[in-house]
Please model this.
Amino acid sequence: MNSRHERQQRKILLLHKIRSQRAEIRRLGEELDRRMQSVDVIWGMLYQFRAPVMLCSGLLLMRGLRRKPGRLLLYIRRAAGVLGTVRFIRRQFTSGKRVR
Model:
């Protein structure tokens, strides 16, 4: 009988611990959302102007290639490095889940 009472007490303590952990996670999530609002605004602006940025970077690349055509390989390597870094960072933050 005593063992049953101890199990019941332990269950109550564990449920209380789970409730408090969930409340802490919710609070931390809200704090993260609040702190990331400025980053989200900046990211939204960058995303909105992605087409002009890509156009300008393409024009600058073509201008640079006209002057020094031997640098094409260097630009390709840099682009591959940046793409690899972006993919790595995306994998780290999404932890295997596809975000769309």
Notes: The two ends are 54 Å apart (CA to CA). The CA atoms of residues 78 and 84 lie 10 Å apart. The chain is about 90% helix and 0% strand. The first helix runs from residue 2 to 48.
